Amino acid sequence: MTSEQKKWLVMHVIAIIFALKMVSFGVNGDPQVPCYFIFGDSLVDNGNNNGIASLARANYLPYGIDFPSGPTGRFSNGRTVVDTVAELLGFDDYIPPYANVRGEAILGGVNYASAAAGIRDETGQQLGARISFGGQVNNYKNTVSQVVDILGDEDSAANYLRQCIYSVGLGSNDYLNNYFMPNYYQTSRQFTPEQYASVLIQQYSQLVRELYNYGARKLVLNGIGQIGCSPNALAQNSPDGTTCVAKINSANQIFNNQLRSLVDTFNRELTDAKFIYINNYGIFQSLISSPQSYGFTVTNAGCCGVGKNNGQITCLPGQTPCQDRDAHLFWDAFHPTEAANVIVGRRSYNAQSASDAYPMDINRLAQL
């Protein structure tokens, strides 16, 4: 073989290797943002509750039955909303849980979410240990100190973190596992729904400002979905098992309206940051109002669980779930199926309706 032929062969092999790398990492190359930080509850928890003394855990089958690596702690048969958003942002892998991530892996982002967690510290305490919003913010502060160590100084860390997307999705449990659980909690006797929403928003605002003080500049504030339409709410409080529970949804809407107003306040006061609101309530309303157009045929029952419409509790270990999972809006008594999560994630990233995201969607936020 001549030297020219050898040279051509080497270049050809290099080209093939490069092409294979491009395929494995996706056509778009690097993700839209360098990192994605997630704060939330069981809707987006991906393993932080696995190692703590909590009844709110999902690290067993049938949870994860449709997820590539099986049960991880995700409260779904497969992907969550933030998994879908991570894909759309261009990340090669899903964002790891705080409980497991170590070293330079934190530079891609961390998921701090904890099942049963709320804005209020006492929320969900009847289920055992959980990491409240305040605890998650403290864990993020610990991550920031590690980012400073890795990048060398605070200025470098600040410049890096300001490019990242921050997703906050809490509040559901402050109603589900607090306000509407009068046998365990006093809040419904202490506050009207309007007062309670204001108390929640005040604490929420303080914690989000802490995230801002520790580098967050692109923040996604997620509204609460229609808790009153979950199989659990329908089984316990719906007169016919299909009509959503108005008093719960009404309270959720009060919170959401105040959260949307908070986005305006933050954008007015913190001008070097950008905040957006995701209208999960409205997105879910469209899924419930016209389920067939999204491929759903069952909207009032979980795919697995116990009791009426599988709506009393979550899936039992080893329980056999329904076969037509993509036809179900809900996976268990409280949580959506992967099919529903993917739709919500896509509409959060690229707003399908003008009301899905305010004042812009995640895709546009990432481009700022």
Automatic annotation (TrEMBL):
Transmembrane regions: none
One Pfam family named in its UniProt record: Lipase_GDSL
Family membership: Belongs to the 'GDSL' lipolytic enzyme family.
Subcellular location: Secreted
Signal peptide range: 1-26
UniProt keyword annotation of Lyase present: no
GO molecular function: hydrolase activity, acting on ester bonds
Protein name: Uncharacterized protein
A GO-annotated cellular component: extracellular region
InterPro entries linked to this entry: GDSL (IPR001087), GDSL_esterase/lipase (IPR051238), SGNH_hydro_sf (IPR036514), SGNH_plant_lipase-like (IPR035669)
Origin species: Lactuca sativa (Garden lettuce)
